[in-house]
Amino acid sequence: MASSSVAATAAEPGPHAAGEKVAAAAVFWHEGMLAHDAGRGVFGRGLDPGFLDVLDHHPENADRVRNMVSILRRGPIARFLSWHSGRPAHAAELLSFHSAEYIEELVQADSAGANNNKICECTFLNPGSWDAALLAAGTTLSAMKHILDGHAKIAYALVRPPGHHAQPDRADGYCFLNNAGLAVKLALDSGRRRVAVVDIDVHYGNGTAEGFYHTDSVLTISLHMKHGSWGPSHPQSGLVDETGEGRGLGYNLNIPLPNGSGDAGYEYAMNELVVPAIEKFRPELMVFVVGQDSSAFDPNGRQCLTMDGYRKIGQIMRGMADQHSNGQILIVQEGGYHITYSAYCLHATLEGVLNLQAPLLDDPLGFYPDDEKYTMQAVDIIKKCWKESIPFLKDI
Ligand SMILES: [Zn+2]
Protein backbone atom coordinates (compact mmCIF):
# COMPACT_ATOMS: atom_id res chain seq x y z
CA MET A 1 0.00 0.00 0.00
CA ALA A 2 1.29 3.47 -0.78
CA SER A 3 2.16 5.41 2.31
CA SER A 4 0.58 8.74 3.06
CA SER A 5 2.89 11.51 4.11
CA VAL A 6 1.51 13.20 7.17
CA ALA A 7 4.19 15.80 7.82
CA ALA A 8 6.96 16.18 5.27
CA THR A 9 9.04 19.02 6.66
CA ALA A 10 12.59 18.12 5.88
CA ALA A 11 15.40 19.56 3.84
CA GLU A 12 18.03 17.11 2.62
CA PRO A 13 21.51 17.77 3.99
CA GLY A 14 23.90 19.20 1.44
CA PRO A 15 23.23 21.36 -1.59
CA HIS A 16 19.80 21.34 -3.13
CA ALA A 17 17.79 23.69 -5.28
CA ALA A 18 16.53 26.77 -3.49
CA GLY A 19 13.15 26.14 -1.95
CA GLU A 20 13.32 22.41 -2.66
CA LYS A 21 12.12 20.34 0.29
CA VAL A 22 13.27 16.74 0.26
CA ALA A 23 12.98 14.38 3.19
CA ALA A 24 16.20 12.56 4.01
CA ALA A 25 14.62 9.68 5.90
CA ALA A 26 11.05 8.45 5.91
CA VAL A 27 9.74 7.43 9.35
CA PHE A 28 6.86 4.93 9.42
CA TRP A 29 4.75 4.94 12.56
CA HIS A 30 1.21 4.30 13.80
CA GLU A 31 0.07 5.22 17.30
CA GLY A 32 -2.05 2.07 17.50
CA MET A 33 1.17 0.27 18.45
CA LEU A 34 1.01 2.01 21.84
CA ALA A 35 -2.00 -0.18 22.74
CA HIS A 36 0.16 -3.23 23.47
CA ASP A 37 0.55 -3.40 27.26
CA ALA A 38 2.67 -6.25 28.64
CA GLY A 39 1.69 -5.43 32.22
CA ARG A 40 3.68 -4.94 35.40
CA GLY A 41 5.77 -7.19 37.60
CA VAL A 42 9.31 -7.88 38.64
CA PHE A 43 11.02 -6.52 35.54
CA GLY A 44 9.74 -8.52 32.53
CA ARG A 45 8.48 -11.58 34.36
CA GLY A 46 4.95 -10.44 35.11
CA LEU A 47 5.22 -11.65 38.70
CA ASP A 48 4.06 -9.84 41.82
CA PRO A 49 6.09 -11.30 44.70
CA GLY A 50 3.77 -9.64 47.23
CA PHE A 51 6.48 -7.76 49.12
CA LEU A 52 7.08 -4.81 46.77
CA ASP A 53 4.96 -1.68 46.90
CA VAL A 54 5.98 -0.56 43.41
CA LEU A 55 6.14 -2.96 40.48
CA ASP A 56 7.95 -2.11 37.25
CA HIS A 57 6.19 -1.60 34.01
CA HIS A 58 7.21 -4.42 31.69
CA PRO A 59 10.46 -3.17 30.06
CA GLU A 60 8.84 -3.28 26.61
CA ASN A 61 6.30 -0.58 27.34
CA ALA A 62 4.69 2.20 25.37
CA ASP A 63 6.58 5.01 27.13
CA ARG A 64 9.92 4.01 25.64
CA VAL A 65 8.48 4.40 22.17
CA ARG A 66 6.57 7.59 23.03
CA ASN A 67 9.96 9.19 23.73
CA MET A 68 11.39 7.84 20.47
CA VAL A 69 8.50 9.40 18.57
CA SER A 70 8.75 12.72 20.38
CA ILE A 71 12.53 13.10 20.08
CA LEU A 72 12.27 12.55 16.34
CA ARG A 73 9.35 14.96 16.01
CA ARG A 74 10.74 17.72 18.25
CA GLY A 75 14.51 17.08 18.48
CA PRO A 76 17.04 18.75 16.16
CA ILE A 77 16.85 15.88 13.65
CA ALA A 78 13.17 16.61 12.99
CA ARG A 79 13.89 18.73 9.93
CA PHE A 80 15.54 15.77 8.20
CA LEU A 81 12.59 13.42 8.60
CA SER A 82 9.23 12.91 6.96
CA TRP A 83 6.43 10.99 8.69
CA HIS A 84 4.29 8.31 7.10
CA SER A 85 1.39 6.37 8.48
CA GLY A 86 1.81 2.64 9.07
CA ARG A 87 -0.94 0.04 8.61
CA PRO A 88 -1.83 -3.43 9.87
CA ALA A 89 -0.44 -6.46 8.07
CA HIS A 90 -2.94 -8.84 6.49
CA ALA A 91 -2.88 -12.39 7.82
CA ALA A 92 -1.79 -13.71 4.41
CA GLU A 93 1.29 -11.46 4.42
CA LEU A 94 2.53 -13.08 7.62
CA LEU A 95 2.82 -16.47 5.94
CA SER A 96 5.88 -15.41 3.95
CA PHE A 97 7.90 -15.81 7.17
CA HIS A 98 5.67 -17.57 9.73
CA SER A 99 3.92 -20.93 9.68
CA ALA A 100 0.11 -20.99 9.33
CA GLU A 101 -0.15 -23.05 12.54
CA TYR A 102 1.75 -20.47 14.57
CA ILE A 103 -0.31 -17.55 13.23
CA GLU A 104 -3.49 -19.48 13.97
CA GLU A 105 -2.31 -20.03 17.57
CA LEU A 106 -1.84 -16.29 18.02
CA VAL A 107 -5.19 -15.47 16.41
CA GLN A 108 -6.89 -17.95 18.74
CA ALA A 109 -5.06 -16.59 21.78
CA ASP A 110 -6.15 -13.07 20.86
CA SER A 111 -9.77 -13.99 20.23
CA ALA A 112 -9.92 -15.84 23.56
CA GLY A 113 -9.46 -12.37 25.06
CA ALA A 114 -7.31 -13.58 27.95
CA ASN A 115 -5.53 -11.03 30.09
CA ASN A 116 -1.80 -11.40 30.61
CA ASN A 117 -1.70 -14.49 28.45
CA LYS A 118 1.90 -15.67 28.78
CA ILE A 119 2.87 -16.85 25.30
CA CYS A 120 6.42 -17.64 26.44
CA GLU A 121 8.74 -16.40 29.17
CA CYS A 122 8.38 -12.62 29.67
CA THR A 123 6.11 -12.32 26.60
CA PHE A 124 2.48 -11.43 27.27
CA LEU A 125 -0.56 -11.03 25.04
CA ASN A 126 -3.26 -8.68 26.26
CA PRO A 127 -6.29 -7.18 24.55
CA GLY A 128 -4.79 -4.80 21.96
CA SER A 129 -1.50 -6.68 21.71
CA TRP A 130 -2.31 -8.63 18.55
CA ASP A 131 -3.58 -5.54 16.75
CA ALA A 132 -0.36 -3.75 17.74
CA ALA A 133 1.71 -6.69 16.46
CA LEU A 134 -0.14 -6.60 13.13
CA LEU A 135 0.54 -2.85 12.94
CA ALA A 136 4.24 -3.37 13.65
CA ALA A 137 4.50 -5.95 10.87
CA GLY A 138 2.44 -3.94 8.37
CA THR A 139 4.24 -0.70 9.18
CA THR A 140 7.60 -2.36 8.54
CA LEU A 141 6.28 -3.76 5.25
CA SER A 142 5.10 -0.26 4.26
CA ALA A 143 8.54 1.17 5.05
CA MET A 144 10.22 -1.51 2.93
CA LYS A 145 7.77 -0.96 0.07
CA HIS A 146 8.53 2.76 0.21
CA ILE A 147 12.16 1.95 -0.57
CA LEU A 148 11.37 -0.75 -3.14
CA ASP A 149 9.07 1.67 -4.98
CA GLY A 150 11.85 4.27 -5.10
CA HIS A 151 10.19 6.86 -2.89
CA ALA A 152 13.14 7.06 -0.48
CA LYS A 153 16.52 5.46 0.06
CA ILE A 154 16.32 5.49 3.84
CA ALA A 155 13.22 4.43 5.74
CA TYR A 156 12.83 3.76 9.44
CA ALA A 157 10.10 1.50 10.81
CA LEU A 158 9.46 2.80 14.34
CA VAL A 159 7.59 -0.24 15.61
CA ARG A 160 6.61 -2.25 18.67
CA PRO A 161 6.19 -4.96 19.79
CA PRO A 162 9.68 -5.82 18.54
CA GLY A 163 10.27 -8.76 16.21
CA HIS A 164 13.80 -10.11 15.86
CA HIS A 165 13.37 -12.99 18.34
CA ALA A 166 10.15 -14.23 16.69
CA GLN A 167 10.94 -17.41 14.78
CA PRO A 168 8.88 -18.88 11.95
CA ASP A 169 6.89 -21.01 14.39
CA ARG A 170 7.27 -19.47 17.84
CA ALA A 171 7.26 -16.27 19.86
CA ASP A 172 10.26 -15.31 21.95
CA GLY A 173 11.66 -12.42 23.98
CA TYR A 174 8.74 -9.90 23.80
CA CYS A 175 8.36 -10.65 20.05
CA PHE A 176 5.37 -12.15 18.20
CA LEU A 177 5.96 -11.36 14.52
CA ASN A 178 9.33 -10.91 12.88
CA ASN A 179 8.93 -7.45 11.40
CA ALA A 180 12.36 -7.28 9.76
CA GLY A 181 12.10 -10.84 8.44
CA LEU A 182 8.77 -10.09 6.79
CA ALA A 183 10.27 -7.00 5.15
CA VAL A 184 13.23 -9.02 3.85
CA LYS A 185 10.80 -11.54 2.34
CA LEU A 186 8.99 -8.69 0.60
CA ALA A 187 12.28 -7.47 -0.87
CA LEU A 188 13.14 -10.96 -2.14
CA ASP A 189 9.64 -11.43 -3.57
CA SER A 190 10.03 -8.06 -5.31
CA GLY A 191 13.14 -9.25 -7.14
CA ARG A 192 16.04 -8.29 -4.87
CA ARG A 193 18.53 -11.15 -5.04
CA ARG A 194 20.75 -10.44 -2.03
CA VAL A 195 19.69 -8.71 1.18
CA ALA A 196 21.95 -8.16 4.20
CA VAL A 197 20.61 -7.77 7.73
CA VAL A 198 22.87 -6.18 10.36
CA ASP A 199 21.40 -6.41 13.87
CA ILE A 200 22.94 -4.36 16.70
CA ASP A 201 20.28 -4.99 19.36
CA VAL A 202 22.13 -6.28 22.44
CA HIS A 203 20.41 -9.67 22.05
CA TYR A 204 20.94 -12.24 19.33
CA GLY A 205 18.56 -11.76 16.38
CA ASN A 206 17.79 -15.47 16.57
CA GLY A 207 14.37 -15.31 14.93
CA THR A 208 15.67 -13.56 11.83
CA ALA A 209 18.63 -15.93 11.70
CA GLU A 210 16.32 -18.96 11.96
CA GLY A 211 14.05 -17.69 9.19
CA PHE A 212 16.90 -17.40 6.71
CA TYR A 213 19.14 -20.17 8.01
CA HIS A 214 18.94 -22.24 4.81
CA THR A 215 19.34 -19.56 2.17
CA ASP A 216 22.31 -17.74 0.65
CA SER A 217 20.08 -14.88 -0.54
CA VAL A 218 20.04 -13.28 2.91
CA LEU A 219 23.18 -12.61 4.93
CA THR A 220 22.21 -12.22 8.58
CA ILE A 221 24.82 -10.63 10.87
CA SER A 222 24.12 -10.12 14.56
CA LEU A 223 26.34 -8.28 17.06
CA HIS A 224 25.20 -9.09 20.58
CA MET A 225 26.29 -9.75 24.14
CA LYS A 226 27.16 -13.36 24.88
CA HIS A 227 23.91 -14.42 26.55
CA GLY A 228 23.46 -17.93 25.13
CA SER A 229 20.18 -19.81 24.98
CA TRP A 230 17.58 -18.58 27.48
CA GLY A 231 15.07 -21.40 27.44
CA PRO A 232 12.71 -23.34 25.19
CA SER A 233 11.66 -20.29 23.17
CA HIS A 234 15.27 -19.37 22.42
CA PRO A 235 17.21 -22.58 21.69
CA GLN A 236 19.85 -20.82 19.60
CA SER A 237 23.17 -20.02 21.27
CA GLY A 238 24.23 -16.97 19.25
CA LEU A 239 27.78 -18.31 19.16
CA VAL A 240 30.16 -18.15 16.21
CA ASP A 241 29.49 -21.73 15.15
CA GLU A 242 25.84 -21.10 14.18
CA THR A 243 26.62 -20.28 10.57
CA GLY A 244 23.62 -21.57 8.59
CA GLU A 245 22.83 -24.87 6.92
CA GLY A 246 22.60 -26.28 3.40
CA ARG A 247 22.74 -23.46 0.86
CA GLY A 248 22.72 -21.07 3.78
CA LEU A 249 25.98 -22.39 5.20
CA GLY A 250 28.16 -19.36 5.94
CA TYR A 251 25.33 -16.83 5.56
CA ASN A 252 24.52 -16.43 9.25
CA LEU A 253 27.33 -14.61 11.01
CA ASN A 254 27.21 -14.24 14.77
CA ILE A 255 29.41 -11.74 16.56
CA PRO A 256 29.03 -12.42 20.30
CA LEU A 257 30.90 -9.63 22.09
CA PRO A 258 32.21 -9.62 25.68
CA ASN A 259 30.10 -7.81 28.28
CA GLY A 260 31.14 -4.19 28.48
CA SER A 261 32.07 -3.83 24.81
CA GLY A 262 31.75 -0.10 24.24
CA ASP A 263 32.01 2.43 21.43
CA ALA A 264 35.57 1.58 20.37
CA GLY A 265 34.94 -2.17 20.54
CA TYR A 266 31.77 -1.99 18.44
CA GLU A 267 33.49 0.25 15.89
CA TYR A 268 36.32 -2.26 15.66
CA ALA A 269 33.85 -5.14 15.20
CA MET A 270 32.00 -3.23 12.49
CA ASN A 271 35.18 -2.35 10.59
CA GLU A 272 36.99 -5.68 11.00
CA LEU A 273 34.05 -8.08 10.58
CA VAL A 274 30.89 -6.50 9.21
CA VAL A 275 32.40 -4.25 6.54
CA PRO A 276 34.51 -6.99 4.89
CA ALA A 277 31.65 -9.52 5.03
CA ILE A 278 29.27 -7.04 3.38
CA GLU A 279 31.98 -6.23 0.82
CA LYS A 280 32.09 -9.91 -0.17
CA PHE A 281 28.31 -10.42 -0.12
CA ARG A 282 27.47 -7.26 -2.13
CA PRO A 283 23.87 -6.85 -0.94
CA GLU A 284 21.34 -5.15 -3.17
CA LEU A 285 19.59 -3.81 -0.10
CA MET A 286 20.51 -3.43 3.56
CA VAL A 287 18.33 -3.87 6.63
CA PHE A 288 19.67 -2.25 9.79
CA VAL A 289 18.04 -3.75 12.88
CA VAL A 290 18.52 -1.35 15.79
CA GLY A 291 18.13 -1.83 19.53
CA GLN A 292 19.25 0.77 22.04
CA ASP A 293 19.57 -1.96 24.67
CA SER A 294 23.28 -2.09 23.72
CA SER A 295 23.64 1.27 25.48
CA ALA A 296 25.63 1.84 28.66
CA PHE A 297 22.49 2.46 30.69
CA ASP A 298 20.05 -0.19 29.53
CA PRO A 299 18.49 -2.42 32.19
CA ASN A 300 18.37 -5.33 29.76
CA GLY A 301 21.93 -5.34 28.44
CA ARG A 302 25.53 -5.33 29.56
CA GLN A 303 27.17 -3.44 26.72
CA CYS A 304 28.42 0.11 26.95
CA LEU A 305 27.52 1.96 23.77
CA THR A 306 26.95 5.71 24.07
CA MET A 307 25.49 8.14 21.58
CA ASP A 308 28.92 8.48 19.92
CA GLY A 309 29.04 4.73 19.32
CA TYR A 310 25.55 4.58 17.84
CA ARG A 311 26.34 7.57 15.63
CA LYS A 312 29.50 5.88 14.35
CA ILE A 313 27.71 2.58 13.63
CA GLY A 314 25.06 4.53 11.72
CA GLN A 315 27.77 6.20 9.63
CA ILE A 316 29.41 2.86 8.85
CA MET A 317 26.05 1.39 7.81
CA ARG A 318 25.43 4.36 5.52
CA GLY A 319 28.88 3.96 3.97
CA MET A 320 28.22 0.30 3.18
CA ALA A 321 24.79 1.08 1.75
CA ASP A 322 26.22 3.85 -0.45
CA GLN A 323 28.88 1.48 -1.73
CA HIS A 324 26.77 -1.60 -2.39
CA SER A 325 23.05 -0.89 -2.23
CA ASN A 326 22.59 2.46 -3.95
CA GLY A 327 22.23 4.00 -0.48
CA GLN A 328 19.13 1.97 0.36
CA ILE A 329 18.68 1.07 4.03
CA LEU A 330 15.58 -0.04 5.86
CA ILE A 331 16.02 0.60 9.60
CA VAL A 332 13.84 -1.51 11.90
CA GLN A 333 13.30 -0.77 15.60
CA GLU A 334 13.80 -3.56 18.16
CA GLY A 335 14.67 -3.26 21.86
CA GLY A 336 15.95 -0.36 23.98
CA TYR A 337 14.48 -0.07 27.47
CA HIS A 338 15.93 2.99 29.17
CA ILE A 339 13.07 5.42 28.73
CA THR A 340 15.26 8.48 28.10
CA TYR A 341 18.58 7.24 26.79
CA SER A 342 17.06 4.92 24.19
CA ALA A 343 15.50 7.95 22.52
CA TYR A 344 18.80 9.87 22.57
CA CYS A 345 20.70 6.88 21.15
CA LEU A 346 18.11 6.49 18.41
CA HIS A 347 18.57 10.17 17.54
CA ALA A 348 22.35 9.64 17.33
CA THR A 349 21.95 6.51 15.18
CA LEU A 350 19.84 8.34 12.65
CA GLU A 351 22.28 11.27 12.66
CA GLY A 352 24.93 8.73 11.66
CA VAL A 353 22.84 7.08 8.95
CA LEU A 354 21.99 10.51 7.53
CA ASN A 355 25.70 11.38 7.51
CA LEU A 356 25.14 14.62 9.41
CA GLN A 357 28.62 15.91 10.10
CA ALA A 358 28.43 17.54 13.54
CA PRO A 359 26.48 15.89 16.37
CA LEU A 360 23.10 17.59 16.59
CA LEU A 361 22.48 16.55 20.17
CA ASP A 362 24.82 16.31 23.17
CA ASP A 363 24.95 13.14 25.23
CA PRO A 364 23.01 13.86 28.45
CA LEU A 365 24.58 11.01 30.40
CA GLY A 366 28.15 11.78 29.46
CA PHE A 367 31.14 9.70 30.25
CA TYR A 368 31.08 5.99 30.89
CA PRO A 369 34.33 4.01 31.19
CA ASP A 370 35.06 1.91 28.16
CA ASP A 371 37.70 -0.81 27.83
CA GLU A 372 37.92 -2.17 24.34
CA LYS A 373 40.87 -4.55 24.64
CA TYR A 374 38.81 -7.69 25.40
CA THR A 375 36.41 -6.87 22.58
CA MET A 376 39.27 -6.43 20.14
CA GLN A 377 40.74 -9.79 21.14
CA ALA A 378 37.33 -11.43 20.65
CA VAL A 379 36.86 -9.78 17.26
CA ASP A 380 40.28 -10.98 16.09
CA ILE A 381 39.40 -14.55 17.13
CA ILE A 382 36.03 -14.38 15.33
CA LYS A 383 37.77 -13.11 12.19
CA LYS A 384 40.19 -16.03 12.30
CA CYS A 385 37.24 -18.46 12.66
CA TRP A 386 35.45 -16.92 9.68
CA LYS A 387 38.56 -17.11 7.47
CA GLU A 388 38.90 -20.80 8.31
CA SER A 389 35.27 -21.89 8.15
CA ILE A 390 33.24 -19.53 5.95
CA PRO A 391 34.10 -20.17 2.28
CA PHE A 392 33.18 -16.73 0.95
CA LEU A 393 35.17 -15.00 3.69
CA LYS A 394 38.42 -16.95 3.43
CA ASP A 395 40.44 -13.94 2.24
CA ILE A 396 38.94 -11.10 4.28
ZN1 LIG B 1 17.20 -6.72 22.77
TrEMBL record:
Which stretch is the leader sequence?
Answer: none
Gene3D superfamilies linked: Histone deacetylase domain
Membrane: is it a keyword of this entry?
Answer: no
Domain Histone deacetylase intervals:
58-351
What keywords are assigned to this protein?
A: Hydrolase, Metal-binding, Zinc
| UniProt cofactor(s) | Zn(2+)
Q: What is this protein called?
A: Histone deacetylase domain-containing protein
The organism is: Oryza sativa subsp. indica (Rice)
Q: What is the lineage of its organism?
A: Eukaryota, Viridiplantae, Streptophyta, Embryophyta, Tracheophyta
